[in-house]
Write a structure and sequence with these properties.
alpha+beta, Phosphorylase Kinase, domain 1, Aminoglycoside 3'-phosphotransferase, Chain: A, domain 2, 2 domains, five-stranded antiparallel β-sheet, two-stranded antiparallel sheet
């Protein structure tokens, strides 16, 4: 974690003033990043410091953080989307422990954390998310003066790892693993089991060659969205550190599963509205290829989240409830033979 001395040097560099040491508050538990909130004496403003944590699942590269910063700034300045740019000028810092940090202004808002035991999902939230995603996906990728070749989700590798590298998880949670394998075995036949990384990439490129592509967030879940206190509107979509270039369908499918789950139930009426509002905001209908692969990518994007959770077991978290929440929507989708027809 960043030291108080390091934080003082950073604030002095940007003439942000002296922070109130007693105000420092850790507001995330370090699942992917470590996030601190602090107050500054001189202007009474509140800031967020994000410390990017490397892991077995991801390597932190300065250039990727720079692209994230540029992209968020573009969304904010050119499209007026509810995102939070880094401080201007943007500062990316390397601290003594070898981790990169960045500072953002603090945005006050509400998080609606929907779980099977806490059904807080309302249709207006789902609509707000779908319209944000559609507008983000409507951006012409050729307007950017930077490129991004990163792609965090590899659907082929996700399936291979779940089948071949989860023996300890299967032993500890046999019922959960059985539920995962049932969907994998019955509904993902078009994704082969390939262990060679280059062959995985080649198959994926061929498989997705006709899907519309651009910049994708890949992580718009409840924890990464703030809503206004007094209006049914998004205050900010957060955490673009998984920003990738790839098929929009990855974002569509993952966000659909997250934001159309109401308590323990997947709501197909919400999903239908989500897709309608998304297409209007994107100013482009889903292509036939996107419709044909939508159900499959609902499974594979949730499996990616499940795999990440399994691989993060050594963090000491209780994961069975988390994985159950991730399985529930795709279990219900897999049991509904009319799923796509209902949405169309």
């Amino acid at each position: 974690m960043i030291t108080k001395e390091e934080l003082t040097l950073i604030l002095n560099k940007y003439a942000l003033g002296e922070f109130i040491s007693s105000s420092i508050e850790q507001i995330t538990d370090g699942w992917a990043n470590l996030t601190l909130k602090f107050h500054v004496k001189s202007n009474e403003k509140i800031y967020i410091l994000r410390e990017y944590l490397p892991s077995k699942q991801r390597t932190i590269i300065f250039e990727d953080i720079q692209v994230e910063s540029n992209f968020i700034s573009y969304l904010f300045k050119q499209y007026h989307l509810p995102v939070v740019p880094m401080i201007d000028p943007p500062g990316i810092f390397l601290i003594k422990n070898g981790h990169y940090c960045a500072i953002f202004p603090f945005i006050d808002g509400i998080k609606y954390i929907n779980t099977p035991k806490n059904p807080v999902r309302q249709l207006w939230q789902t609509i707000e998310i779908s319209q944000f995603l559609g507008r983000m996906h409507s951006i012409d990728k050729h307007k950017f003066d930077f490129t991004l070749n990163r792609r965090r989700i590899n659907v082929v590798d996700t399936k291979y790892q779940l089948v071949n590298s989860c023996s300890e998880f299967e032993k500890d949670y046999p019922d959960l693993y059985k539920r995962i394998r049932q969907i994998l075995d019955e509904h993902t036949h078009s994704i082969p089991l390939i262990d060679d990384e280059l062959e995985q990439i080649k198959f994926e490129e061929d498989f997705e060659k006709d899907l519309p592509k651009g910049f994708i967030h890949i992580d718009i879940h409840d924890e990464n969205v703030l809503f206004n206190h007094n209006q049914n509107k998004i205050a900010a979509v957060l955490d673009f550190d998984d920003l990738s270039f790839g098929p929009f369908l990855i974002d569509i499918a993952m966000t659909l599963c997250f934001w159309c789950s109401c308590g323990p139930k997947f709501n197909t009426d919400y999903a239908k509205t989500f897709l309608m509002k998304y297409q209007n905001a994107r100013c482009m209908l889903l292509t036939n290829d996107e419709w044909n692969l939508l159900e499959l990518y609902c499974y594979m994007t949730m499996f990616d989240q499940i795999l990440f959770t399994i691989q993060s077991r050594d963090s000491g978290r209780v994961i069975d409830e988390m994985i159950n929440e991730l399985i529930l929507p795709i279990e219900q989708i897999s049991q509904d033979k009319m799923f796509l027809k209902k949405l169309q």
